[in-house]
Specification:
single chain, mainly alpha
Length: 173
Amino acid sequence: MDKIQKPYMNPYLAGFLLGLVMLSAFFVTGRGLGASGAAKSVVITTVGKLASESIADNPFYADFFSEGPGPMKNWLVYLTLGVLAGAFFSGAMSGRLGFKVDKGPRISSETRLIFAAAGGLLFGLGAQFGRGCTSGAALTGMTILSTAGFVTMMAIFGTGYVIAYFFRKLWIS
């Protein structure tokens, strides 16, 4: 028996609502949103737990543990947990909750997951080098009319468009 799924939200309405969320974030917290900072906090905490004796000698890691409540008390961690909880709730409410791998007809689920993990790793590295991810550098930057935000967004989508040319055969029949 197939589940009855609600249709996706109109993308223009979703974009407008995302803009309201960005404005609310600036109004409430005084800064924009970003998700890669939460991943960074998790990685730094993990390194701190696994190699606690060596982080004191590393200035990059030592700064996160020398003062303050620690990297996991970063508000971006709680923001990301809220996004995950909201996504779970939204999926449950719309009848889309479950495990599945979206893929094209010419790619196996395993290969799709490997490509997704590799893409996520590359995007995470890029976010670290660029000092922000799509939401932090691009959306927040565009919200404050920063040239760097617009350039970042164009670079992200332009690169995706170019790279998609090489992988499109995996997605079309």
